[in-house]
Amino acid sequence: MRRRLDQFTESEPTALVFTGANGGILRRSNFRRAAKWSETTRKLGVTGLHFHDLRHTGNTIAASAGASLRDLMARMGHDSVRAAMIYQHRTAETDHKIADVMNGKITQVLPTKASAH
Questions:
Q1: What distances in angstroms separate CA 52 from CA 4, 24, 31, 72, one per listed residue?
Q2: Cross-strand partners of 25
Q3: Which of 13, 20, 33, 34 has the lowest tally of Cβ within 10 angstroms?
Q4: Predicted confidence pLDDT, tens digits, the chain (117 residues)
Q5: 89, 63 in Cβ contact below 8 A?
Q6: Taking a C-beta distance cutoff of 8 angstroms, is the pair 72, 62 a contact?
Q7: Which long-range contacts does 31-40 make (Cβ < 8 Å, 24+ apart)?
Q8: How far apart are CA 56 and CA 58, in angstroms?
Q9: What residues form DSSP beta bridges with 19?
Q10: Are the C-beta atoms of 75 and 67 separated by less than 8 Å?
Q11: Cα separation, 66 vs 59, whole angstroms
């Protein structure tokens, strides 16, 4: 990834990673055309994939990795908790993580069998 960024982007920390045809900001209005989105998704075998699906997937993964609502809000550029809540999907994996953490906390405070006698 670093090699690709070094090869295709400017060296300034504020350099754009994705640009329009003339090197400017890639706007929503010209993204699909500039990225050849329909052609690219067809070649990848994921027709019907929308760019926003990538954003949703990334933020759902961030949420399942433990990102707080504030973290998600910052990632998305939103100031609404309601918007961030969309990515807080309830999953069996999350339920297991919660149960494991709760079990660990309870186990820490319960007396052991040896000290109970």
A1: 23, 21, 12, 15
A2: 19
A3: 13
A4: 788 888 888 888 888 887 877 888 888 788 888 888 999 999 999 999 998 898 888 888 888 888 888 998 999 888 888 888 887 776 667 778 889 999 999 999 887 665 555
A5: yes
A6: yes
A7: none
A8: 6
A9: 25
A10: yes
A11: 11
